[in-house]
Design a protein that fits this description.
With 455 residues, the chain is α/β, with parallel strands linked by helices. 30% of the residues lie in helices and 25% in strands. It is built from 15 helices and 19 strands. The strands form four sheets. Strands 6-7-8-3-9-10 form a six-stranded mixed sheet, with helices on both faces. It has a six-stranded mixed sheet with strand order 15-16-17-13-18-19, with helices on both faces. A four-stranded antiparallel sheet has the order 2-1-4-5, with helices on one face. A hairpin with a 2-residue loop joins β4 and β5. The longest helix is centred in the middle third of the chain and has 16 residues.
């Protein structure tokens, strides 16, 4: 079988406008039809590399570029991004930023409208893409009401509707439940087998590893062939269990017969749960099942439709799925300092910055960081100052192994100091390592799962 080269980079270098060193320094890279898996730590240059393929690097971001980059016969350096966008489909790390229209069906049609596709053909393509992406049942939903995982599948459907010759995806599985992740992996495998060049940067390697393809690793902007993709499992990380909670443990929050949902439409009903000081609770379940809704209700950000919510006195920290929703200051250090501005002086903020591997990033603007780095910055910003209750929505989104391990240590330390932590996650290994209790949320209810027996 002849390998057909779809994209190539030769002696290609790129430096962001404010960068002191090259973000990319690629001697020779050729992308063929089929699957290419891009691995590497957060901040290694994976996203920068992917953005070369649709021309965002250098045309949107600016900066200094050298060498040669060619995609589908186009010289990237002199070709407008609108030309590349017609053939290169791109799914971003932040699906929240990829939606344009307020409803799902209209948003999927956006790309087709831009190329002036006839209405009849467009309608057919949109329907097929929604079916393929598994979101046909969301056709009439408002985009603002979707969960993070549902938004990821929406972004993918919008790109699939264009039927691109090259499909580039940046962390497409980061917020998907198990069923959704398997479905997307199956879609990518089918497209790659049919000759589409599929390039995927991802930290969730367990499912993607089952696909036939090639792997490359990015480290410091340089690309190595045959990535020694670390397949370490978070479940292997030794986290010391916290002290056994007694039946007399202090109540931190309580939901009593609560019905709740956005726009006063209940997603879950009859929920009676309580969280205590010194424990970690994991909320698990399908995308759109109500995990984020429960977190927001516990936090007081969403008023329940029925029932009662009680919280003990003290600060409540809330980490949303999209970290950019709370990162507004000029530097990482300023974000953390703002959180603890009214607290008594302590080394708590410095400890979190160091523990999460952010020391070398404290002077950076959070908006210039990779998704994994932004996630760590947001976690440090919300957890600094020892909140009484910490509510974390998909905290491992975009994180590499080292960052996940650091998060585990930070959460375990908070738990042991008496904090009440609730984590909404699809990360089964995170649940296995940290959760004292697990709540399954979905099908309109929330129920506690029995502890898993340890041999």
């Amino acid at each position: 079988m002849i390998d057909i080269t779809v994209a190539s980079l030769e002696h290609f270098t790129y430096r962001y406008p404010a960068g002191r060193t090259n973000a990319l320094d690629v001697a020779d890279l050729r992308i063929q039809e089929g699957l290419t898996l891009v691995t590497g730590a957060s901040g290694s240059g994976k996203s920068s590399l992917l953005r070369v393929f649709n021309g965002l690097v250098p045309h949107f971001h600016g900066g200094t570029v050298g060498g040669r980059a060619e995609v589908l016969g186009h010289n990237v350096i002199i070709t407008a991004t609108r030309v590349l966008a017609a053939q290169v489909g791109f799914v971003f790390q932040d699906p929240e930023l990829q939606s344009v229209y307020p409803t799902v069906e209209r948003d999927v049609a956006f790309g087709l409208e831009n190329i002036a596709m006839p209405r009849a053909t467009m309608t057919q393509r949109v329907g097929e893409a929604m079916d393929q992406g598994g979101i046909a049942h969301l056709r009439s939903r408002a985009v603002a009401t979707l969960s993070g995982g549902e938004r990821q599948r929406l972004a993918l459907a919008g790109v699939l509707a264009l039927r691109p010759r090259m499909l580039v995806l940046d962390e497409p599985l980061s917020q998907l439940d198990e069923e959704g992740a398997r479905s997307v992996v199956s879609i990518l495998g089918t497209l790659a087998a049919a000759g589409t060049a599929v390039v995927v940067a991802e930290h969730r390697l367990d499912l993607l590893g089952s696909l036939h393809g090639r792997a490359i690793a990015v480290d410091g902007g340089r690309v190595a062939e045959g990535a020694a993709a670390a397949r370490r499992r978070l479940g292997d990380v030794p986290v010391v269990p916290g002290p056994q909670r007694s039946t007399a443990a202090t109540m931190a929050w309580e939901l009593d017969d609560v019905a709740t949902g956005p726009a006063r439409i209940p997603i879950v009903e009859g929920v009676s749960l309580a969280g205590h000081a010194g424990e970690v609770i994991a909320l698990v379940g399908p995308n759109g099942g109500g995990k984020t809704t429960l977190l927001r209700t516990i936090a007081g950000l969403l008023r329940p439709i029925a029932g009662r919510v009680d919280r003990a006195p003290g600060r409540v920290a809330f980490l949303p799925q999209n970290p950019m929703a709370l990162l507004h200051r000029a530097t990482v250090a300023a974000e953390v300092a703002w959180t603890v501005r009214g607290d008594a002086p302590s080394n708590d903020a410095t400890l979190f910055i160091d523990e999460l591997g952010l020391t070398h990033l404290t002077a950076r603007d959070p908006r210039d960081l990779s998704t994994g780095e932004r996630q760590r910055a947001a976690i440090a910003a919300v957890l600094a100052g020892a909140p009484r209750i910490a509510l974390l929505d998909e905290p491992t989104r975009g994180m590499d192994d080292a960052a996940r391990n650091a998060l585990c240590r930070a959460v375990a330390r908070m738990r042991d100091a008496g904090g009440s932590i609730v984590i909404a996650t699809h990360d089964k290994n995170l649940v296995a390592v940290l959760a004292d209790r697990t709540i399954a949320v979905g099908a309109g209810s929330a129920r506690e799962l029995a502890p898993v027996a340890v041999a």
